[in-house]
Amino acid sequence: MFFRRFTALIVISFLLWQTASGQESTPVPTPEKAISPAPKPKPPATPAEPPITFNSVHVDGPYIALTFDDGPNATLTPKLLDLLAARHLKATFFVVGQNAADHPDILKRAVREGHEIANHSWSHPNLGKMSDEAVRRELQKTDDAIAAAIGKRPTLLRPPYGSITSHQKKWIHDEFGYRIIIWDVDPLDWKRPGPSVVTARILKETKAGSIVLAHDIHPPTIEAMPATFDQLMKKGFKSVTVTELLAMATPLPPKPTPSPSAPRAIPVATPAPASSPPPVPTNTPGG
Ligand SMILES: [Zn+2]
User: Fold this and answer.
1) How far is the CA of 159 from the centre of ligand 1 (A)?
2) Which of 117, 171, 185, 248 has the maximal Cβ count within 10 Å?
3) DSSP secondary-structure letter at 118?
């Protein structure tokens, strides 16, 4: 009995001594600290550069952007505005500066009705083949004409024919703050294939996040729009301005793992990589 108590006392004393000495001694580095090397100097915290160029946008809802290039046109653009207003649809007009300067009232009306006005150069040249100085003049004159008409500078550029170099994208973004908007749906309406073909092509290609290209300077394009708009709406699409669509952008989902039950991710190629070629050859009038 005594021996057991004595043993227990010895064990308790030993444990107490061990604990006490452990507390007094220098803390043993945790395994993690002991293993990890000296922390590397972190690079300055630069946020990932936001994308500049967009062909389409990944969005979670049924949103699309309808875009009309090369106007405004004295008769066709007001007709188009009527069609849009009747359906409460929003669009973006990539205007040619010299037309904008001729028809400031049409731009004013478009803005009043919720549409967006954006830069499409002054005289519709192939920017990709021009000097920086010449491009700067094209963009600045148009920027000024738009500002004079609507009291607000544009924030988007669509280069004619989608033609623009990576170098140009960068300095234009730096100087003008523009995002470069291409498209992912092109009905080739400038070839005037007939209104029903324009409608069919747009309906076939448009998906959530699409940027649809058309031109408000061709009568058959305007003729195609009532059916196009009505059928897009019937499919559940909602049109917003390009700036609104960009604001809705959500990150691309991770690549789907091959699983039969996994929901199919909508393949949306956006934003366009800086090095991507223009979507159309530069000798065609697309854009
Ligand atoms: Zn154009």
Assistant:
1) 7
2) 117
3) E
Is the confidence at residue 76, as pLDDT, over 60? yes
Percentage of the residues of the chain whose pLDDT score is greater than 90: 70
Structure confidence at residue 254 (pLDDT): 79
Beta bridge partners of 263: none
pLDDT of residue 39 exceeding 80: no
| DSSP class of 273 | P
Point out the catalytic residue in the list 120, 124, 215, 218: 215
Amino acid identity of 115? H
Q: Which residue from 80, 69, 79, 34 is spatially nearest to 242, judged by alpha carbons? A: 69
The structural domains of the chain, with segments of one domain joined by +, span: 53-247
The second-level CATH assignment, the architecture, of 53-247 is Alpha-Beta Barrel (3.20)
User: Is residue 233 predicted with pLDDT exceeding 50?
Assistant: yes
Near ion ligand 1, which residues have CB within 5 Å?
69-70, 160, 287
CB 163 within 8 A of CB 47: no
Annotated active-site residue in 69, 70, 143, 216: 69
Q: Is 69 among the residues known to form the active site?
A: yes
